[in-house]
Amino acid sequence: ALEAGAACCGSPLSARLTRAAGPYMDFHAQVWGTVAACHPHDAVAAASLIAPEAFVFESARLRVAVDGVRQGRIDRIDGAPNAEVCVSVDVVVVERLILTTLFGEKAAGDQRDRSVGAT
């Protein structure tokens, strides 16, 4: 989707974003086995503020390990909620929002056209 957006838009920003995403996408391919894709966590977090209707959140109690081999890991535990956790997202809506924001309406439309009928 990123390459399609850049090709559609052709702006210096879109070319730079596509180049910058290359190593990130390579990392995701090696670690997660994705093909020409990545997990745009920051962009999706921003999208949750812009289009909260595309997300489902649940209250939960979370604990973050602060040291040891599990440092940075998050566990869901029993107790009073201290966070809101996203449990579902409308991928089509969020992808379109991100593509439209980065590359304009035509890029998002082109991506939608390619995904129609996909299995």
Describe the protein's topology:
Layout: H1 2-9, H2 12-32, H3 41-50, E1 55-64, E2 74-77, E3 83-89, H4 91-103, H5 105-115
Antiparallel strand pairs: 1-2, 1-3
Your description of this structure?
With 119 residues, the chain is α+β, with helices and mostly antiparallel strands. It has a three-stranded antiparallel β-sheet with strand order 2-1-3, with no helix packed on it. It contains five helices and three strands. α1 (2-9) packs antiparallel against α2 (12-32), α1 (2-9) packs across α5 and α4 (91-103) runs antiparallel to α5 (105-115). The protein is globular. It has one domain (2-115). The chain has helices at 2-9, 12-32, 41-50, 91-103, 105-115, and strands at residues 55-64, 74-77, 83-89.
Which terms summarize this structure?
disordered C terminus; 3 strands; single chain; 119 residues; 5 helices; globular; three-stranded antiparallel beta sheet; alpha+beta
The total beta strand count reads: 3
Would you tell me the structural class of the helices and strands?
alpha+beta
Instruction: Please indicate the count of domains.
Output: 1
Give the topology string: H per helix, E per strand: HHHEEEHH
Spans of at least 5 consecutive residues with low confidence = 114-119
Strand content: 15-25%
Rounded to an integer in angstroms, the radius of gyration calculated over CA atoms is 17 Å
Distance between the termini: 16 Å
Q: Strand order of the main beta sheet, please?
A: 2-1-3
Helix content: 40-55%
Say what oligomer this is: single chain
**Average pLDDT for all residues:** 83
Overall geometry: globular
Largest sheet: 3 strands, antiparallel
Count of alpha and pi helical runs: 5
